Amino acid sequence: MSLEMKKIESKRLGDCYYKVEHPSGLTILLAPMEGFSTAYAMFGTAYGSIDTCIKTAENGEFKKLPEGIAHYLEHKLFESEECSAFERYAKTGANANAFTAFDRTAYLFACSENFEESIEILLDFVTHPYFTAETVAKEQGIISQEIRMYDDSADWRVLFNLLGALYHKNPVKIDIAGTVESIAEITADLLYDCYNTFYNLHNMVLTVAGNFEPEAVLKAADKVLEPAKDFYLEHGDCGEPESVVENYVEQHLPVSVPMFNIGFKGKAGTEAENFRGSILDEIFVGALCDDYTKVYRELYDEGLINATFGSEVFCGRDYISILLSGESRDPEKVYNRLKEEFEHLLEHGIPKDVFECAQKTVYGHYMRSSDRVTGVATALFNCHFPGVDMYEMLDIAANATPESVIERIKTTYSAENSALSVIKP
Amino acid sequence: MIGTLNRKKIGNGAFMNSVNEPKFKHNRITLCLVTPLEKEKATVNALVPFVLRKGCKSCPDFTALNKKLAEMYGAILEADVGKHGNKQIIEITLLLADDKYAIGGEKMTETAANLLWDIVFEPNLDENGHFPEIDLELEREYLIDTIESDLNDKRTYAIGKALDLVFEKEPFGIKRYGYVEDAKAITSESLAKAWKELVEEAQIEIFFAGPGNSEIAEKVFAEKIASLDRNPVKTSESEMVDYSPLKEAEESMDIAQGKLVMIFRMGAPKTEKEKNAARMLSALYGGTAFSKLFMNVREKMSLCYYADSHFERGSGILIVDCGIEFENREKAQKEIINQLELVAKGDFTDEEFNDTKGAIINSLGSVGDTLYSVESWYMSGIVEENIVTTEEDKKAMEAVTREEVMKAAENAKLAAVFFLKGGENE
Lengths: 425, 426
Hints:
By secondary structure, chain A is an alpha+beta fold. Chain A has helices at residues 69-77, 85-90, 115-126, 133-151, 154-166, 180-183, 188-198, 214-224, 271-289, 294-301, 331-348, 352-369, 373-384, 392-399, 402-412; strands at 6-10, 15-21, 27-32, 39-45, 53-54, 63-64, 95-100, 105-111, 204-210, 248-252, 259-265, 310-315, 320-327, 418-424.
């Protein structure tokens, strides 16, 4: 059977990828990259830690799930009746892994040899769950240790404390792995419920980049994948207000210097709006406080920030925030100065030279990811669920103007709806 | 596949290294100053890259410099210090889009080479030959924070403590960023002297990887180097210690998870054959998701989320570490030792052995696929004075035998155990 491979090209980069709608219901995105030796594949679902309750056509009502179940499921999917997926990959030499994020779960591998065997293993184990009371029980100890590890991570705690200050109801504030107590409630039956709801091929995507033959992927898909049932899922509105819970939160942990996260909470739109908007937000945050700005220099010269200072736009299905992080002996001063600058920019606009720096930096960042097989497969994966074309991100950055950026920020953020999270020694 | 290294002497103790990789859209140019790792100089040398990145004579203002980089399509300037065995390496890198992606036809490679040179060799010094006072103060503070930031990551912290136990007075034990007391003592004079010594005496290694024309950069560097008055100092090899008596220590901290670190001396593996056997052992024992430690300490006993082993070629040690419940320390430690003894006895299948080999060979195949890994692969070879391609290394790893791995495991002797546990700081 030969399927239609739709070619999508970027004039700016001279790159291309192919899109295939497989009869099983799975969308497959393929980016062969000339000259590379590695192939990198990601197979995943639009299901993550924020999916704490489900409502499907079958049961008709919302059902609450234990926190951390998406992550638990990710761990358990590696097992089958015979042997673990890791043991199967051992035969191909591929380097395999998986991750659970707020609104995604992905299974991935990288290899420079035996691609055909590895892609078949990937498709096969993710579509064949096997959970029993014993195997579920065995994982409690392992995941408890993963949770403990994050409890001791100041980087992780400062972020989740911030999300707790920004969000009243949105489950994005819940730790991805849950708690030692919440995961104790997880059973094999619950894992099957979640699996059958979210691991529907219509709700999933396969992306591959680098050194491989597209035909090999399609062949494996034809061999392994069964047509998926129709897909119905309602996420429900969590009823998150625009305001934040509190403006300040702190915790004491053994660290050398106080660490901080500052968050500006945005008004979330649709997933696609959040995703496209986040690129303009990145330009804005560059103009606000990247290392070529006046305010960065002032904070730096006053010893209030150091080279660890950085920013990102945190966005997903129903949330978007601008996050700034770093180390400081006076985080409140940094926070206040940035809020002032935020308001100043909204009032006076972004100076042309600063805007150009911000725009070129964001553009350069997206261009750099096209130089790595992991970067390309990840970008394809991340763009799929919001329904955005990967190359559109470069266009959005290139076509931005100071006015369009300010307009977006004015309607999405305010200095007031923000918070500071601090970890003190 | 990794591209071929083109290495050429371009001055007194100065080399231009380039790997042409047409598949990329960016070039990565790194200027390294390689110098002996010495306790007295480690800290002040570590401060040098931090002040260099603040500006140079041709662009003295920090903000103007960052603006210039942003305008070059968000070029990235990195300035850091690394260590490799008994050598300290000051690394200044520019990562930027190749000329063919410059919309206005700017000559970015040439500009970058000149800028990189200026940052390292033409810093913004005052009439006394000193760095700006504000840069010294801010970056010295940042260096101290960086040294102390080991504490922020408990895993790194615990490994550091275990390494202190093992190395004590050996050069391998000297800290990458140096020591807080030494950092506090740095003055304008000592910093300027450290920079001057580095540019005069360190081995200069320039590394160019990417699709661009490295000859453009080479021309810039070769001309400028000719004007330098250099007196390069050769680093002598440090002797590896074969074994040392077991040292154990514990520390309490207000934490949720215990961190256990065990370091083994490998009997000072000197030949490539011995080192490769130790690499192979490390992978079989705790380097993959089907290794002995993963399958037993994690999967069978559910004691931890991670239990890894890592062989350090430069110093010849094997580091094993895991995160566990405090009360499981004995159980974990016993099993870690047990698994190593089993490997020494040959209690592993040909299948496990060949699969481990396959994993190593598969990952070697990916080294050529990022500019960073191309650079670090060859730079390791340059610093160790043993340059090989990944294809050659694949062949060498293929040739490792079961018996060599068993022998390597037998040679492993526990030298240090460090445990970071919960409770009040003592």
